């Protein structure tokens, strides 16, 4: 059958449509693949790495406790029913040993003391007279001008006079002692930490009137469990940080030899030679240095807290991350000790770890791992 012009035109049109449709299909697939690749690339988070490494670190025990006076002395008087006439110190004042802190009304005691002095002088005069009479009697006895019994009486009179003088001296000393009690003096150098008396107040014997921090010395006391207490030795360095950021250093003075039966804890006592601005009663956290050792550490930014536990994200060979639960210890200069969960050389996510979940794909940028492993 002869092919007409219209048949040729229709045939050419069909071939053109087929070619065009065949060319368009590969283009749509390529675009879809490209879009998928771009989505995968955008879903991969850019992170930097760090490696778990062994570092030298001071071994510390962290504890909390109050700053307390080394010795705090409660001061009072030994007289009752006597009025305070002079109060010479106030809270926070430094005093010297022997300094007069307060005085009581001592007019009655002064009168008693003068009376005791008079009695003592009288008794001493009686001793002198008895001595003279005995000396004269001994001379007369040599000439046999007095009897032996008269000489014995003179000797007895001398003994009686000496006894009366001794009694008067004891009475006078007792009155003087009571008179001294009317003045309260500082038993040692220190700082007045408390005042419980006012001028004009009538006081009683044994009542606390003032409190003195002996020598102004302060110490830090902390309760430690039995395992930590066994690691602390006398002379170990302790460091306290105040609220203002100031570091106060001291040394362990003593460690309690026994434990409390109920709490299973013991007390550490640390001297603070230079307490600076510290005040008694301040509660501070301290670090007790117990030596130096090698520990496994990672940057603190690599550890994230979730559900009350510590985790790091370890990077696998295919650039996916694996969430690893770890046990952390002490921190120092931006690094944290890892006691369980990692081994030396493990690569973990440093920056960006807080945004990851287990199995995420990551894109490593930079050479942070090399930098972080530099001690």
List the SSEs and their pairings.
Elements: H1 5-43, E1 45-47, E2 49-51, E3 53-69, E4 72-75, E5 82-87, E6 94-95, E7 100-104, H2 107-142, H3 148-181, E8 183-185, E9 190-195, E10 202-203, E11 210-214, E12 218-225, H4 226-231, E13 237-241, E14 247-255, E15 265-272, E16 283-299, E17 304-306, E18 309-315, E19 321-332, E20 335-340, E21 347-349, E22 362-364, H5 368-372
Parallel strand pairs: 1-22
Antiparallel strand pairs: 2-21, 3-12, 3-16, 4-11, 5-7, 5-10, 6-9, 7-8, 9-11, 12-15, 13-14, 13-16, 14-15, 16-20, 17-18, 18-19, 19-20
Q: Could you provide a short overview of the structure?
A:
The protein is of the alpha+beta class. It has 5 helices and 22 strands.
How does this model look, in words?
The chain has helices at residues 5-43, 107-142, 148-181, 226-231, 368-372, and strands spanning 45-47, 49-51, 53-69, 72-75, 82-87, 94-95, 100-104, 183-185, 190-195, 202-203, 210-214, 218-225, 237-241, 247-255, 265-272, 283-299, 304-306, 309-315, 321-332, 335-340, 347-349, 362-364. It has 375 residues and is α+β, with helices and mostly antiparallel strands. It has four domains: 45-55 and 294-372, conserved putative lor/sdh protein from methanococcus maripaludis s2 fold, CATH 2.40.420; 62-70 and 214-292, Efflux pump adaptor protein, beta barrel domain (Elongation Factor Tu (Ef-tu), domain 3); 71-105 and 182-213, Beta Barrel (OB fold (Dihydrolipoamide Acetyltransferase, E2P)); 106-181, Helix Hairpins. α2 runs antiparallel to α3 (148-181). The strands form five sheets. Strands 3-12-15-14-13-16 form a six-stranded antiparallel barrel. The chain has a four-stranded antiparallel β-sheet with strand order 4-11-9-6, with no helix packed on it. The chain contains five helices and 22 strands.
């Amino acid at each position: 059958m002869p092919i007409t012009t219209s048949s040729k035109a229709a045939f050419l049109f069909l071939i053109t449509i087929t070619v065009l449709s065949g060319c368009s299909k590969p283009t749509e697939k390529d675009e879809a693949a490209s879009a998928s690749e771009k989505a995968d690339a955008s879903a991969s988070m850019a992170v930097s790495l760090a490696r778990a490494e062994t570092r030298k670190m001071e071994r510390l025990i962290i504890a909390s406790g109050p700053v307390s006076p080394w010795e705090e002395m409660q001061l009072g008087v030994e007289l009752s029913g006597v009025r305070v006439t002079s109060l010479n110190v106030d809270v926070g004042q430094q005093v010297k040993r022997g300094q007069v802190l307060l005085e009581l009304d001592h007019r009655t005691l002064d009168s008693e003391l003068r009376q005791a002095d008079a009695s003592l002088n009288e008794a001493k005069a009686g001793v002198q007279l008895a001595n003279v009479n005995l000396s004269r009697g001994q001379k007369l006895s040599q000439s046999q001008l007095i009897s032996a019994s008269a000489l014995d009486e003179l000797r007895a009179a001398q003994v009686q006079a000496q006894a009366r003088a001794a009694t008067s001296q004891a009475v006078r000393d007792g009155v003087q002692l009571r008179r001294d009690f009317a003045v309260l003096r500082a038993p040692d150098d220190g700082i007045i930490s408390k005042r419980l008396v006012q001028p004009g107040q009538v006081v009683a014997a044994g009542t606390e009137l003032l409190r003195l921090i002996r020598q102004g010395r302060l110490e830090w006391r902390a309760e430690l469990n039995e395992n930590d207490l066994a690691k602390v030795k006398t002379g170990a360095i302790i460091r306290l940080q105040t609220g203002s950021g100031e570091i106060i250093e001291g040394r362990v003075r003593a460690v309690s030899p026994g434990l409390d039966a109920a709490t299973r804890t013991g007390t550490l006592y640390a001297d603070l030679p230079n307490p600076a601005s510290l005040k008694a009663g301040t509660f501070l956290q301290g670090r007790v240095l117990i030596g130096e050792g090698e520990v496994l550490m990672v940057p603190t930014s690599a550890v994230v807290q979730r559900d009350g536990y510590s985790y790091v994200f370890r990077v696998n060979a295919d650039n996916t991350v694996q969430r690893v639960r770890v046990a952390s210890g002490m921190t120092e200069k931006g690094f944290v000790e890892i006691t369980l969960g990692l081994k030396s050389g493990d690569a973990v996510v440093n920056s960006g770890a807080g945004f990851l979940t287990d199995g995420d794909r990551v894109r490593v940028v930079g050479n942070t791992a090399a930098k972080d492993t530099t001690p």
